[in-house]
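Thread: Newbie trying to understand structure tokens

Hi all, I'm a second-year student working on a class project, and my supervisor (Dr. K.) asked me to get a predicted structure for one chain before our next meeting. I've only ever worked with sequences, so writing a 3D structure as a token string is new to me. If someone could post the tokens and maybe explain what I'm looking at, I'd be very grateful. Here's the chain:
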Amino acid sequence: MFRNIVLVIAVLILVNVLAPAGFAHEPGYEITIPQAMVPPNIDGKLDDPIWNIPEPVEWGNINNGGEVDEDQFSYSWAAYDNEFIYVAFRNMEPNTNDLLMVAAGHDQDVWADDENEIFIEPANMGMQPYFHIMINADNVTQDSESGGAADAWESELDSETQIYNDYWVLEVKIPFEDLGIEEAPIGETWGWNFNRHIMTGVDIWTSWATTGASFHTPERFGDLTFGLEQIAVQPSGKLTAAWGWIKSDR
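---
Reply by user tm_fold:
Sure, no problem. This is what the structure looks like when written as tokens:
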């Protein structure tokens, strides 16, 4: 009897150690994203209802410590449906005329420009594999898997940027299929990060989850959960939560 109890306890411990859900990324960086019943237009305008709720993620952490001033903060949103993840960035920038956009084309050193980056780790284990997408303010893209060769993994994403007086916008639509996912991962939690390179007279790397010197630190990504909330639009054009959206902290 005692031996059986010990065996059961050992099995439970092993399951808890190996279970992906048991991994904790960088503490304090968790978001839950809604299901988009009406997908956003990928046009760089941020006028789609899905970007009105929930509140955006606000961030400006410099990778080697501290924060940028509020006039260079970034705001990010994400949502999903059965086929795609939708991501939007609003990058505050008082000197939009000085944005650096010199990448020659797809997969050609986009990281050196004013750009946004998305890190996606579906396994949620704080390790490889993960997917990495970079898009500059001129909508030139670069993509790779686990920091490997830029041409080794290609996404059929759709993106668009717009530059305004004191900020620039990026919207992205990423197919689940490109990430090796066959259906929407409702209720799952993935490793995730929003990132930015600022080159307007400076050379600063900022992020949502603080990864330290390198963005390529999956154990320090944040946690993104695919929520049950379904955001739709009524005939009147007003936002509605199909169910479960209202939270106690709002």
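A couple of things are worth pointing out once you decode it. Confidence is low (pLDDT under 50) at residues 2-21, 239-250. The chain has one domain: 2-241. Feel free to ask follow-ups in this thread.
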